[in-house]
Amino acid sequence: EKHLLGTKGMSAQEITSILDRAAYWEQYPVKLSNHLQGRFVANMFFENSTRTRFSFEVAEKRLGAEVLNFAAAASSVAKGESIYDTVKTLESMGIDAGVIRMKPNGLLEELAQNIRVPLINAGDGNNEHPTQALLDLYTMRKHFGHLQGLNVSIIGDILHSRVARSNLWALQAMGAKVSFCAPESMQAPELAAHAPYIAMEEAVKADVVMMLRVQLERHEGGLFESTEEYREAYGLTEERAGRMAPHAIIMHPAPVNRNVEIDDALVECEKSKIFTQMSHGVPIRMAVIERALS
Ligand code: CP
């Protein structure tokens, strides 16, 4: 299996081998290698992205691959061409692997059954964002030295979060304990059987406090009248961060809504790994692309 569709069902061994290979690439002494010379990788983003898109491109270039960048707005998608026909078109031109981000849930599975080249999920709907979870696990393992037994709180808009889902499956495979914290309108009922929902005051006591971007525009008529109300109830404020354990860390996949789910002063504080996470996106994606093409 060379596709990477999600972390659900991945074994601890598979995850560990990706994290170990990323560690190799993080320490690699020069920026460019020729590991994937002559291989073509297409980045197909049908949804916006900054971190994922650019870190895949940096990763591919560092491996010496030829990179094709596809932007939906400048393509025949604007004329109504489907995602399936677009991917099939690039496959027919001889790409060796495809990185894909898109809105629909469930379509990736169907694509993977009909496309011969390996596909890497760069985020699909609210389903999975496996490379984000892998770089998050890499960041945690590097900080704590292990993942087994770590307490991880994932706080915020769980309902819409592919990051929460991919982290849940990957962390549980590695023996970490995941808890969620969210207002009722942002809870995902189908995940309740997999991890407990706990109160905010409990959630901030974890080893890892992972905040999620809130999309208040998608919660019309919900619990909160304003971003300030949300911040007071579920935001990581400076006051709450002051009650975190001394060894604990703050994470966020970004982009960040400063002063909504996390206070501005905390984004770059000592406990925060937010920009470290972004830097780990490159070696993780190098390991994942290499796995797809090996
Ligand atoms: N964390 C993340 O996926 O960011 P982008 O949407 O900018 O890629």
TrEMBL record:
- Aspartate/ornithine carbamoyltransferase Asp/Orn-binding domain: residues covered: 148-289
Quote the catalytic activity from the record.
Answer: carbamoyl phosphate + L-aspartate = N-carbamoyl-L-aspartate + phosphate + H(+)
Name its species: Paenibacillus rigui
Q: Name one GO molecular function term.
A: aspartate carbamoyltransferase activity
Cross-referenced Pfam families:
OTCace, OTCace_N
Q: Which family does it belong to?
A: Belongs to the aspartate/ornithine carbamoyltransferase superfamily. ATCase family.
Which key words tag this protein in UniProt?
Answer: Pyrimidine biosynthesis, Transferase
The record places domain Aspartate/ornithine carbamoyltransferase carbamoyl-P binding at 2-141
According to the record, the signal peptide region is none
Tell me which residues bind L-aspartate.
K79, R162, R213
Q: What is its EC number?
A: 2.1.3.2
The Gene Ontology CC terms held by the record are:
cytosol
| InterPro entries with a match to the protein in the record | Asp/Orn_carbamoyltranf_P-bd, Asp/Orn_carbamoylTrfase, Asp/Orn_carbamoylTrfase_sf, Asp_carbamoyltransf, Asp_carbamoyltransf_Asp/Orn-bd
Which biological processes are named by the entry's GO terms? 'de novo' pyrimidine nucleobase biosynthetic process; 'de novo' UMP biosynthetic process; amino acid metabolic process
The UniProt entry, under PANTHER family, shows: ASPARTATE CARBAMOYLTRANSFERASE, ORNITHINE CARBAMOYLTRANSFERASE, MITOCHONDRIAL
Does the record's keyword annotation contain Membrane? Answer: no
Indicate what this protein is called per its UniProt record.
Aspartate carbamoyltransferase
User: Which pathway is recorded for this entry?
Assistant: Pyrimidine metabolism; UMP biosynthesis via de novo pathway; (S)-dihydroorotate from bicarbonate: step 2/3
The entry marks the following residues as binding carbamoyl phosphate, namely R51, T52, R101, H129, Q132, A254, P255
Outline the subunit composition.
Answer: Heterododecamer (2C3:3R2) of six catalytic PyrB chains organized as two trimers (C3), and six regulatory PyrI chains organized as three dimers (R2).
Superkingdom to which the source organism belongs = Bacteria
